[in-house]
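Let us work through a complete example step by step.
Step 1: write down the sequence.
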Amino acid sequence: MRKTLPIISFSYSLLLLYVCLVNVNEVVEISSYNDKLTHLIAYFLFTSVWFLFFYGFQKKTKKQALTGSFIFAIVFGIIIEVLQKVLTEHRQADYKDVIANVIGALIAVIIINLITYWKVKNN
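Step 2: predict the structure and record it as tokens.
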């Protein structure tokens, strides 16, 4: 499992990048509420897989892995919003997407902290 963490992390990031830049309006109509919920879930997962990469593969401390994955998620999300504005005509940058991304990343950090706390407490 440890050796697949880089593949999982990079693949998820590339998939997220692709989905955020492709013209999805031709494929599916998404309401504003569902769009923000989708961002929240996507960045919850993004932060979680990168936490596993930093913690499980690179052997960073829990604090370093959480901080690194959280900051990376925020920066990645902002870069995608900029790319949507600059590279596409069918997508637009939205600060509300960035807020949803940050909330998703924060929820991941909180849940990872709770899981690791309970794991340590029960051992």
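Step 3: interpret the result. The chain has four helices and no strands.
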